[in-house]
């Protein structure tokens, strides 16, 4: 009986199901137009209507308007509880309805003389109903409401004004004084505030007399109003941060963000504002403390050691609070610090170790990855205690491994792999940790994560003893591996790596065991692996393998027999086969795909597919591509535990950078080859990856440039992207005049843009003949002066005037060695560097920069070379640093550079030594620094 | 990482039931989940990660998600990834508390549907189009009107036996908790 009456309450549908849209619509029209209005019934109907809307239903514009109109009839009824819901319904329907202005007068009447309980709702609804032309009529109303004594009314008005900003900035601007007054005033709730609910009982002594939320809203509104007045904003921030006037935590958070913005724009102001920020580190509310920490971490490069330590101390405190969200935020920040300055968080290691067992998985994951980073830092600094800390952590994790879920284990595996890659010297303990994991029970995903990690370590660790250790462990693993996929992958790897090791026969024995014991899929890949040993090693090994393979000719499975026969056939022609097997390069798959699809779209198959045009990537280049991808991926994993694209902003940028680079290059290529003159230059060797801004980003015309080098044809094409940010003018016949300070560059032709509309964009190409490095004394470095030339026409309501020609000076563009070089990865920098002997050059320069870190990043980008051996990481207390950079030039030669940096006073001295395969390249790099 | 300077701090407020269906969903200025299909997908993929996992906060799909599960209702507040974690969690926890008070200690699916007017008003008094209006639960509650009392018949208070099992259970937990705290 009880369930029956319970369900009867909701007349439209059972619990959980959505009420019928049309039924609700009809009922609404009927009830709202009835006379007299049944308030209780109507409120329930409105609630059902809102439920429809909030669950994702929507009404077409005509029905919505009808509803809107009938709801407006409810204004006749005086009941305030009904009125409150009416406002909510009007707010939600205002987006889809027409003629919403008709309720304006009713709302305004309520604001002026209505009941206090729904006045704030009325104000907030008014903002939804008004448009840019009618705002001014409500100006007086808003001003009065902002300065109202009731904090809720004031907040509602401030929020509404904020919503109206995009539509009516000039009207809202006039509220500046009222908002300022609101920030500084003290508004108190009326005594009637708590009447509605008997939950609090008769005593209101424990209830707040105000929440100061209006301070937060007023402060939020003041920022966009003061945005163009830096001094004004500065004054506001200073006065508010000193007086202790702001009582609301949210307002303080907002204030901290403004300070952060001011200091980011002008770091010199930090000294002035730091005391205020530091005082927030000891605030009673943890969200304020957290915000101060966040801001200070963002400004970290401008802070002194002591100042930085105070952040750490604050975070340390936050790590041990009971609130999960705060702990989570604190560890997230610490993790972020650990990416750039792991040595600074050594003091919180004990806390971090406790957090490994935290009940929240995100927190424990972050704790572990952070700890691994600190370990890395101590090993990089060469401290003797590092080994102990590695051991301790590993033992702790081994303990932990038993009690955590699989997903989480994978995170740890990835973290370990990351660490090993970054700090190869630590590989021994870490590899043994991984191989131990391999021996324990686990699902396929877990095992493949471990195998993946080990594969990567083989690819990127340059240490033959490590290779052997890993390979042996893998051999052992396949002895009793239940997963066919993994066995096959490992056998493939053994076939590739095994022959190069000192004891190939060890691996052959293991592979042969597979041949005897496993299923047909594994057997056939074992056959292939064995044949590789035979072909690469030759000699007695080949003879032995021949015997083994001959036995396989009698295998029960077709595939195994076939493969064995092929392998035996290939062994007869070993030299050719060797070339096939031990190939050094691979086609650029992206380019191959786009070429093939364009070949298919031409539909002319009489011409042979031009496979020669596809660039072949050498094994080293492939590795460097994969390495970058890997590093970015691992970095991203560090920021969070989710496999989906969840990452901090830094991770997102890096990830996009790597993945988009290859795509962008292809896109540029396609765009360039659409122009016949440029297509005639032949193969595009290299495009600079990021567009360079030649104007301020806020200018009326924004110009960016991308340089494209055609090495074979000795041409340089500059692609200027011109954007017109003005909405009332049109540019015609846009071209760029390029003047070079280097006579070796000559402008060949210019591809102008006929027209760039208001807020439009266009691309201008300028082709130049470039000097080739093959020539003697070639001067490659150059700077170009650029001038934008165009006919300027004003557009007014679609009518353009005759216009006049004008020019616009934009910044110079430099050609540097980076335009001729792509980053390259190699795990053994020293040997590569020693082998390069064709050309070498060195130079000493001083660079204006405050930190070594900054210089390293700058060098990396400017030279477009890859820092190796973890040399892009600079310990923050170091006074000197060595960066090892490797790249490949457009002619296919390698180029390596060792840059020794030392701090001297406020400047940084750099000694650059460069060596290259291509003559002239080394000098070029030195001159580019 | 530049912090969000604007007042638009919350990107969505959701109430989900114990099967991941939405009881309430409102997205504010959220470009990533502009269409209904995107929103549904977000909710459905998020749900298994937060259902019966009382971890309060997580990063998901480039968003910061704070949530609270009470009986069979999940209260979720979503914000941008670099928003202040403690702030967003406070909004979520305090909204949950306000709803609990408004629904007479029985925040569950049936009651939410039954008193949908109170629920939607409470959320509207907490977040307006992405701007946080108020985080103190007592003040949020004080802003929400009770339904009008039209007929005397409807005014009869429902006996405790008529409330669902959840209500009785959560009522009991609360009372026991209070007693324990008083040391009785």
TrEMBL record, chain A:
GO-annotated biological processes: endoplasmic reticulum to Golgi vesicle-mediated transport; intra-Golgi vesicle-mediated transport; intracellular protein transport; protein secretion
Domain Clathrin/coatomer adaptor adaptin-like N-terminal, chain residue ranges per copy: 22-573
GO cellular component: COPI vesicle coat; endoplasmic reticulum; endoplasmic reticulum-Golgi intermediate compartment; Golgi membrane
Domain Coatomer gamma subunit appendage Ig-like subdomain, chain residue ranges per copy: 666-815
Locations listed in the record: Cytoplasm; Golgi apparatus membrane; Cytoplasmic vesicle, COPI-coated vesicle membrane
Membrane as UniProt keyword: yes
GO molecular function: structural molecule activity
Pfam family, one: Adaptin_N
Keyword flag Repeat: yes
Main location: cytoplasm
Keywords: Cytoplasm, Cytoplasmic vesicle, ER-Golgi transport, Golgi apparatus, Membrane, Protein transport, Repeat, Transport
Membrane topology: Peripheral membrane protein
Coatomer subunit gamma C-terminal domain segment(s): 818-929
Gene3D superfamilies in UniProt: Coatomer, gamma subunit, appendage domain (2.60.40.1480), Leucine-rich Repeat Variant (1.25.10.10), TATA-Binding Protein (3.30.310.10)
Functional note: The coatomer is a cytosolic protein complex that binds to dilysine motifs and reversibly associates with Golgi non-clathrin-coated vesicles, which further mediate biosynthetic protein transport from the ER, via the Golgi up to the trans Golgi network. Coatomer complex is required for budding from Golgi membranes, and is essential for the retrograde Golgi-to-ER transport of dilysine-tagged proteins.
Family the UniProt entry places it in: Belongs to the COPG family.
Assembly and oligomerization: Oligomeric complex.
Protein name: Coatomer subunit gamma
UniProtKB/TrEMBL annotation, chain B:
Subcellular location: Cytoplasm; Golgi apparatus membrane; Cytoplasmic vesicle, COPI-coated vesicle membrane
One cellular component (GO) term of this entry: COPI vesicle coat
UniProt keyword terms in alphabetical order: Cytoplasm, Cytoplasmic vesicle, ER-Golgi transport, Golgi apparatus, Membrane, Protein transport, Transport
The keyword Transport is annotated on this UniProt entry: yes
Gene3D superfamilies: 3.30.450.60
Domain AP complex mu/sigma subunit stretches: 10-145
InterPro entries in UniProt: AP_mu_sigma_su, Coatomer_zeta, Longin-like_dom_sf
SUPFAM superfamilies reported in the protein's UniProt record: SNARE-like (SSF64356)
Biological process, per Gene Ontology: intra-Golgi vesicle-mediated transport; intracellular protein transport; retrograde vesicle-mediated transport, Golgi to endoplasmic reticulum
Membrane topology designation: Peripheral membrane protein
The keyword Membrane is annotated on this UniProt entry: yes
Family label: Belongs to the adaptor complexes small subunit family.
Subunit structure: Oligomeric complex that consists of at least the alpha, beta, beta', gamma, delta, epsilon and zeta subunits.
Function in brief: The coatomer is a cytosolic protein complex that binds to dilysine motifs and reversibly associates with Golgi non-clathrin-coated vesicles, which further mediate biosynthetic protein transport from the ER, via the Golgi up to the trans Golgi network. Coatomer complex is required for budding from Golgi membranes, and is essential for the retrograde Golgi-to-ER transport of dilysine-tagged proteins. The zeta subunit may be involved in regulating the coat assembly and, hence, the rate of biosynthetic protein transport due to its association-dissociation properties with the coatomer complex.
Protein name stated in the entry: Coatomer subunit zeta
Source species: Diutina rugosa
């Amino acid at each position: 009986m009880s369930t029956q009456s319970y369900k009867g309450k909701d007349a439209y549908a059972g619990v959980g199901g959505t009420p019928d849209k049309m039924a609700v619509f009809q009922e609404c029209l009927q009830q709202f137009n009835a006379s007299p209005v049944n308030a209780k019934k109507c409120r329930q109907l409105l609630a059902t209507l809102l439920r429809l809307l909030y669950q994702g239903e929507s009404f077409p514009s005509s029905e919505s308007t009808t509803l809107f109109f009938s709801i407006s009839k409810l204004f006749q009824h005086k009941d305030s509880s009904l009125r409150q819901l009416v406002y909510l319904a009007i707010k939600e329907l205002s987006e889809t309805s027409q003629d919403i202005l008709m309720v304006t007068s009713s709302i305004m009447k309520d604001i002026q003389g209505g009941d206090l309980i729904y006045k704030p709702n009325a104000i907030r609804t008014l903002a939804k109903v008004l448009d840019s032309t009618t705002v001014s009529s409500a100006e007086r109303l808003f001003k009065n409401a902002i300065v109202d004594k009731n904090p809720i009314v004031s907040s509602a008005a401030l929020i509404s004004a904020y919503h109206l900003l995009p539509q009516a900035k000039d009207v809202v601007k006039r509220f500046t004084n009222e908002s300022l007054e609101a920030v500084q005033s003290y508004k108190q709730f009326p005594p009637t505030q708590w009447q509605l609910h008997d939950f609090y009982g008769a005593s209101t002594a424990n209830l707040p007399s105000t929440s100061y939320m209006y301070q937060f809203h007023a402060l939020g509104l003041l920022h966009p109003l003061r945005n163009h007045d830096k001094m004004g904003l500065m004054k506001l921030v200073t006065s508010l941060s000193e007086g202790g006037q702001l009582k609301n935590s949210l307002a303080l958070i907002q204030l901290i963000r403004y300070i952060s913005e001011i200091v980011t724009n002008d770091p010199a102001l930090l000294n002035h504002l730091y005391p205020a920020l530091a005082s927030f580190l000891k605030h009673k509310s943890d969200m304020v403390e957290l915000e101060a920490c966040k801001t200070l971490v963002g400004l970290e490069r401008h802070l002194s050691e002591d100042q930085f330590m105070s952040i750490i101390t604050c975070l340390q405190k936050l790590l041990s609070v009971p609130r999960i969200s705060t702990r989570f935020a604190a560890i997230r920040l610490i993790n972020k610090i650990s990416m750039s300055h792991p040595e600074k968080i050594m003091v919180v290691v004990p806390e971090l170790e406790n957090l490994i067992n935290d009940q929240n998985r995100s927190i424990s994951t972050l704790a572990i990855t952070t700890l691994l980073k600190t370990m890395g830092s101590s090993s990089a600094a060469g401290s003797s205690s590092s080994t102990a800390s590695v051991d301790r952590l590993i033992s702790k994790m081994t303990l932990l491994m038993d009690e955590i879920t699989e997903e989480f284990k994978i995170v740890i595996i990835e973290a370990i792999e990351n660490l090993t890659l970054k700090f190869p010297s630590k590989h021994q303990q870490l590899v043994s940790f991984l191989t131990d994991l391999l021996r324990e029970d686990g699902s396929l995903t877990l095992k493949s994560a471990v195998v993946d990690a080990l594969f990567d370590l083989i690819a990127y660790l340059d240490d033959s003893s490590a290779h052997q250790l890993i390979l042996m462990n893998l051999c052992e693993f396949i002895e009793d591996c239940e997963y066919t996929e993994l066995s096959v992958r490992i056998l493939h790897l053994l076939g590739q790596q095994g022959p190069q090791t000192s004891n190939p026969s060890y691996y052959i024995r293991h592979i042969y065991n597979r041949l005897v014991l496993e299923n047909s899929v594994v057997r056939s890949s074992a056959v292939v692996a064995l044949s590789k040993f035979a072909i690469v090693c030759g000699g007695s090994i080949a003879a032995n393998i021949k015997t083994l393979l001959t036995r396989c000719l009698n295998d029960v499975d077709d595939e195994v027999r076939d493969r064995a026969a092929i392998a035996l056939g290939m062994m007869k022609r070993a030299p050719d086969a060797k070339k096939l097997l031990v190939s050094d390069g691979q086609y650029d798959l992206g380019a191959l795909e786009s070429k093939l699809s364009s070949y298919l779209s031409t539909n002319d198959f009489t011409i042979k597919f031009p496979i020669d045009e596809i660039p072949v990537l050498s094994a080293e280049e492939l590795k460097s591509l994969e390495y970058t991808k890997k590093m970015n991926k691992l970095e991203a994993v560090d920021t969070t535990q989710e496999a989906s694209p969840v990452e901090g902003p830094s991770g997102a940028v890096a990830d996009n950078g790597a993945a988009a680079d290859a795509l962008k290059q292809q896109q540029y290529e396609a765009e360039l080859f659409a122009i016949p003159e440029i297509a005639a230059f032949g193969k595009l060797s290299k495009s600079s990856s990021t567009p360079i801004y030649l104007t301020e980003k806020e200018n009326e015309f924004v110009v960016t440039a991308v340089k494209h080098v055609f090495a074979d044809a000795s041409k340089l094409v500059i692609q200027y992207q011109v954007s017109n940010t003005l909405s009332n003018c049109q540019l015609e016949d846009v071209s760029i005049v390029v003047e070079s300070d280097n006579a070796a560059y000559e402008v060949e032709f210019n591809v102008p843009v006929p027209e760039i509309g208001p807020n439009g964009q266009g691309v201008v190409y300028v082709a130049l003949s470039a000097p080739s490095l093959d020539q003697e004394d070639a001067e490659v470095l150059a700077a170009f002066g650029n001038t934008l030339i165009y006919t300027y026409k004003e557009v007014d309501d679609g009518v353009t005037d005759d216009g006049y020609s004008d020019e616009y000076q934009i910044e110079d563009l430099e050609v540097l060695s980076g335009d001729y070089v792509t980053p390259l990865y190699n795990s053994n920098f020293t040997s590569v560097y020693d082998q390069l002997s064709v050309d070498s050059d060195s130079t000493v320069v001083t660079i204006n920069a405050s930190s070594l870190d900054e210089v390293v990043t700058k060098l990396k980008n400017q030279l477009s070379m890859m820092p190796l051996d973890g040399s892009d990481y600079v310990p923050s207390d170091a006074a000197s640093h060595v960066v090892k950079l490797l790249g490949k030039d457009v002619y296919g030669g390698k180029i390596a550079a060792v840059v020794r940096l030392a701090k001297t006073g406020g400047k940084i001295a750099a000694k650059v030594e460069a060596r290259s395969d291509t003559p002239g390249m080394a000098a070029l790099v030195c001159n580019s620094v | 990482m530049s912090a969000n300077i604007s007042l638009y701090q919350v990107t969505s407020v959701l109430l989900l039931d114990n099967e991941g269906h939405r009881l309430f969903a409102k997205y504010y200025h959220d470009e990533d989940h502009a269409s209904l299909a995107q929103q549904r997908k977000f909710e459905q993929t998020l749900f298994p990660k937060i259902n019966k996992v009382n971890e309060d906060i997580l990063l998901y799909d480039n968003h910061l998600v704070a949530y609270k599960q009470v009986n069979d209702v999940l209260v979720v507040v979503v914000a941008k990834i670099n928003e202040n974690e403690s702030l967003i969690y406070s909004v979520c926890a305090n909204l949950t508390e306000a709803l609990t008070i408004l629904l007479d200690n029985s925040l569950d699916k049936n009651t939410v549907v039954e008193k949908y007017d109170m629920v939607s008003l409470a959320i509207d008094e907490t977040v307006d189009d992405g701007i946080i209006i108020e985080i103190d639960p007592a003040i949020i509650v004080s802003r929400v009107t009770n339904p009008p009392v039209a007929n005397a018949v409807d005014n009869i208070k429902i006996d405790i036996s008529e409330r669902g099992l959840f209500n009785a259970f959560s009522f009991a937990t609360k009372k026991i908790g209070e007693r324990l705290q008083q040391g009785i």
